Amino acid sequence: YMVDKGNHRHFMEKEIYEQPEVISHALGHYVDFTENRVSAAASAIDFARIPSLAISACGTAYLAGLIGKYWFERYARLPVEIDVASEFRYRDIPLSPDAAALFISQSGETADTLASLRYCKDLGLTIGAVVNASESTIARSSDAVFPILAGPEIGVASTKAFTCQLAVLAALAVGAGRARGTISIEEERVLVRHLAEMPRIMASVLNAIQPKMESLARELSKCRDVLYLGRGTSFPLAMEGALKLKEISYIHAEGYAAGELKHGPIALIDENMPVIVIAPHDRFFEKTISNMQEVAARGGRIIFITDERGAAASKLETMSTIVLPNVDELIAPMIFSLPIQLLAYHTAVFMGTDVDQPRNLAKSVTVE
Ligand code: G6P
């Protein structure tokens, strides 16, 4: 299978711009767009009959799982236990054999994720795999396989696999909500329509924000540390933004829950450390704004990633504000992934690092 960069400088850039297309492809597998219902592919696990769900993964796939936890709990009222695979497998978590466990992995070969899977299998849980490589060891060891259909991902820093993992998890959570009766058919239809809008919105966002992300990246490339903040599903996204930046630009970055700012990272804030705040105008917006005020009051430079409603509602002065379209809460994490990916990508390009093959990292980690 030959893959080339097309007109792009790096595979990572190509994979970022491929997202509208691959997400549309992935969604087509899990969603019936004529009925606006979740399709049978999403119910390979009987979510109605399980008492709880365990999720385990590594790296970016783990952060997709963390966002999935918010969705399974909110839409399907399904309690979710989640941890990075290298902790999950050693924690002696009290897991019911009636429960199901989802393992998320782009490669399907990550050693710790596979070990967590085998551990759950021995305990008798139903095993589901959310994978890009459907012939992988993790896929072959599972009862149910949920392919993310992202196509080959070459860049070591995961981009399109992350958003496709999210798209699949979103469809599974909505399907689980229907199966468990925690959302109505009407609610399902509304949520599925939001999912269906995603590819078009992603394409227009990618097109609109590119120049701004490039000029912001020039600023970021001069920094030693960056703090990312978010609340709700924007919290795992903040961690993903920080992870992307670390991985390819080697700038030290941390992703923090906005509400935890005052319990530590606020001590680091000065005019040299940019604080990137991810805050769509959702249920938590006002709370996150007050955290931003704490940053501003200490001279921190804020890069504010929000939507049109959020931009209109905030009076705070920022170093830069990136305004995305207003979207439903369910799809916001996928849309808000785009600026954080482009920011990391362009920062790395300015720094002159090896974007597709960052030092010390591997695409597939088969050692524990
Ligand atoms: C490595 C890669 C990451 C990836 C992680 C999990 O660390 O560099 O990009 O998120 O492994 O990989 P997986 O294939 O299991 O998703």
UniProtKB/TrEMBL annotation:
GO biological process: amino sugar biosynthetic process; carbohydrate metabolic process; fructose 6-phosphate metabolic process; protein N-linked glycosylation; UDP-N-acetylglucosamine metabolic process
Quaternary structure, from the entry: Homodimer.
Catalysed conversion reaction: D-fructose 6-phosphate + L-glutamine = D-glucosamine 6-phosphate + L-glutamate
Residues annotated as the enzyme's active site: 363
Protein name: Glutamine--fructose-6-phosphate aminotransferase [isomerizing]
Annotated GO MF terms: carbohydrate derivative binding; glutamine-fructose-6-phosphate transaminase (isomerizing) activity
Residues shown, of full length: 241 to 608 of 608
Superkingdom, natural source: Bacteria
EC number(s) per entry: 2.6.1.16
Gene: glmS
Repeat keyword on record: yes
Cytoplasm listed as a keyword: yes
Organism: Ferranicluibacter rubi
